[in-house]
Each structure stands twice: as structure tokens, then as C-alpha cells.
Amino acid sequence: MKDKVRIAVLVSGGGTNLQALIDAQMAGKIPHGEIVTVISNKEGAFALERARNAGIEAVTILKADCGSKEEFEDVIGDSLEFRKIDLIVLAGFLAVLSEDFVKRFPNRIINIHPSLIPSFCGDGMYGLKVHNAALARGVKVTGATVHYVNEITDGGEIILQKAVDILPGDTPATLQKRVMEEAEWKLLPQATEIVCQKILKEISADEYL
Ligand code: GAR
Questions:
Q1: DSSP for residue 112
Q2: Which domain holds residue 200?
Q3: What percent of the chain has pLDDT over 70?
Q4: Nearest atom of ligand 1 to the alpha carbon of 111
């Protein structure tokens, strides 16, 4: 019987959330999963270095090399199937995935978003833009959300959320840092372990059918 979910982490940038996953894995906090590959859609993303430093395969797949978005997603999807990936974690992966891609991996993709969904989310809302919008609206509390990915951007079922206070004098950069430290880096490993346990149960139930 399978005892670990095979995880792929998709990234586009610095990879601090990937690092939180790697650290959690090394600390035994994701006992039911194993990060087997990291895929970046940006050349030279520092996240790739973090993967290699941890002895994890680091792969770059560029849309420019694939032609269309459809072909780009086909290459990513084929790479994931080839590696027998059970769970895809979007950790600062800033390309929006199409409905076709999501349907290829139903309930097998999760994402971290740096706000309390349904606030400050949806198409075009990523990274510092999210914190900019929260400050502009004047909310006093923001946070982070880990959710399943479906065909609606940031619209899938919520797995975990954590609130973070906005403090006087916050800038988008100070707020981003606090949301990462207080929420994202804790939430993503926790949610990943929860989903890994769920997937293992589904797989073992299927084996009895
Ligand atoms: C994180 O704050 C993540 O929540 C956000 O991008 C940042 C990536 O940082 N993702 C989104 O905004 C998705 N809509 P990292 O590369 O250091 O993990």
C-alpha cells in the first residue's frame, strides 16, 4: 500500500513557500507526502536553487518554448503524469491554469493565496498587488488562504485560512512579509499534509474496489 503522496511544487519566483514545504518535510511535518519535483515557469527562479539545495529535481518549463498556452500546459501535465504525481502544490506559481488543465487533475491541485479569500483575489491579483489592494481598501485584517484549484481563479474549496493584522504604517512590502511569516509559511505545509492524508485514503479506498 502506498504510504506517501508524490508531490510536485509549481513555482515562479523566490520560493519562500517552497522553502517552508521543504523545511516542514525535513522536520517530519509532512509524513504522508514527499516533494519529488519542482517545476518553474520562469528561467532562473530562485525557487529552483532551493529545490536543488534540498536534493529535489528542479525543472524549468517556459511557455515561450512551447508555443501556445495549451501546449505549455500539455507539457506540464505530461511531465506530472510521467512522474506519477498525486498532488500539485502551486506555491507562488503565477500562471493561471486553464479549465482543461484543472480537469486533468481534479481535486489534486492546491494553491496558496496571500489574502482571506473571497477578498482581494481573482484574475490579476497576485503577489504585492494583493497587499496593495488590501491597504488601499483600508481593511484592518488580511491573511492567507490555501484552497483547491478549480476552473474559477481562486474559486475552489477553501482548505485553511489564517488572519493577520494590518498595522499602522504598513507598506505592501511589510504586509507581504508579515502575511508570509505569520500565515503562509505555516498554512501551506499544514494544508499539504491534510490533503496528502485525504488522497491516501482515496487511493486505498480505490484499491478495494
Ligand atoms: C506568495 O505570497 C504567494 O502567496 C503569492 O505569491 C507569493 C510567492 O512567494 N501567490 C499569489 O499571489 C497567487 N495568486 P514565494 O515565491 O516566496 O513563495
A1: E
A2: 5-208
A3: 100
A4: 13
